[in-house]
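Renewal narrative, Specific Aim 1. Our central claim is that a sequence can be written position by position from structural information alone. The example that follows is taken directly from our test logs and has not been curated for this report. It begins with the structure tokens describing the chain, in the order in which they were read.
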């Protein structure tokens, strides 16, 4: 027997029938030898499958199958001979027999399910995918010119200095401790393997991509180091990561004859550009989240604009387009959110932060971060919800 599936329920079947046609009306008139035929279009297909339920306890899966058939609405039928069909269960009949130890058959007639309703588009998922595409475009564009052994040695030393500069910037960016530690460990790993991977541009580009993932670029499999970030602090961290993309780290010390090697200098510029583009993609990815207020969201939007505007002018066409697409997708995702405008209150006499946060309808932790509260028991002046 073959296996079919309807509403994620798998059943056995051994044959099928399919019936189609056209909706024709034949008009026969007295005295006329040639009838008049009207064609009202194609008939709806119907498909018949017989499901088999065998064994001493066949009644249990049979009853489950009958319950699923009775549910209203269309669903996918995985047909063993015709593939995936969008159908509705129209009619069915049940036959049971004691032959061959006893079994049950359910003959089902399926008809077309009608229009396939598309799932509602999740703009956040689209934005994260666009951020990954931007990073992938930057990696694909990356290439290094051939270098002599001396030039390669100088290149590795120069990139070591540059990555150390990035590590210091991250350590000063006041990222969450575990987050910053992960990123710096990845950078340290790249530095340790740099001499080996620099000879293979694709391996080196993927190593730098690992730094971007450590800084918050979504991996596409549900893992994102920024997922548990507090909403109130996200905009500031987006800005700090974006600033790391735009901070100059070109001032490296070059010595020896290879310091003027044209290929090595070009490769250093190429490496720096890739680094900037991947960190900017990470900043874009971290920006995709639900924001508690228009203020926080707008700060994040301003931060990603600042990060990207500095790297786009020198980007090749493919990278430029992919990065612009990512920015547009992130902006769309953030502007699609239903965010209530920030509420301000003037607290004349000092009150506990927990009470004010409750009255404003916001989480106390977010209230403390947004208003830079010095002492949570004595809050006064203008506060924002």
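The sequence written for that structure reads:
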């Amino acid at each position: 027997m073959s296996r079919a599936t309807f509403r994620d329920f798998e059943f056995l079947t051994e044959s099928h029938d399919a019936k189609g046609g056209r909706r024709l009306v034949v008009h026969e008139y007295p005295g006329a030898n040639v009838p008049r035929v009207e064609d009202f279009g194609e008939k709806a297909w119907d498909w018949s499958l017989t499901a088999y339920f065998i064994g001493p306890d066949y009644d249990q899966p049979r009853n489950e199958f009958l319950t699923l058939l009775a549910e209203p609405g269309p669903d996918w039928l995985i047909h063993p001979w015709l593939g995936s069909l969008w159908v509705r269960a129209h009619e069915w009949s049940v036959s049971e027999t004691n032959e061959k130890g006893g079994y049950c058959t359910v003959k089902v007639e399926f008809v077309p399910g009608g229009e396939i309703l598309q799932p509602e588009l999740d703009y956040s998922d689209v934005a994260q995918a666009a951020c990954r595409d931007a990073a992938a475009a930057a990696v694909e564009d990356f290439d290094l010119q051939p270098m002599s052994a001396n030039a390669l040695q100088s290149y590795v030393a120069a990139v070591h200095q540059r990555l150390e500069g990035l590590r210091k910037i991250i350590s000063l960016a006041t990222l969450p401790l575990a987050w910053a530690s992960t990123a710096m460990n990845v950078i340290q790993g790249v530095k340790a393997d740099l001499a080996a991977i620099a000879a293979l541009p694709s391996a080196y580009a993927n190593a730098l991509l690992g730094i971007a993932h450590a800084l918050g670029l979504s991996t596409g499999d549900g893992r994102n180091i920024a997922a548990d970030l507090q909403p109130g602090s996200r905009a500031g961290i987006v800005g700090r990561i974006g600033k790391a993309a735009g901070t100059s780290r070109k001032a490296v010390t070059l010595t020896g004859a290879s310091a003027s090697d044209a290929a090595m200098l070009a490769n250093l510029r190429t490496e720096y550009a890739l680094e900037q583009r991947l960190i900017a993609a990470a900043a874009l990815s971290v920006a995709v989240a639900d924001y508690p207020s228009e203020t926080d969201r707008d700060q994040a939007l301003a931060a990603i604009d600042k990060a990207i505007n500095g790297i786009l002018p020198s980007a090749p066409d493919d990278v430029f387009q992919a990065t612009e697409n990512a920015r547009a997708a992130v902006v769309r995702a953030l502007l699609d959110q239903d965010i209530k405008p920030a509420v301000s209150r003037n607290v004349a006499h000092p009150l506990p932060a927990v009470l004010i946060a409750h009255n404003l309808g916001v989480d106390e932790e977010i209230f403390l971060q947004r208003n830079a509260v010095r002492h949570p028991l004595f809050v006064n002046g203008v506060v924002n919800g």
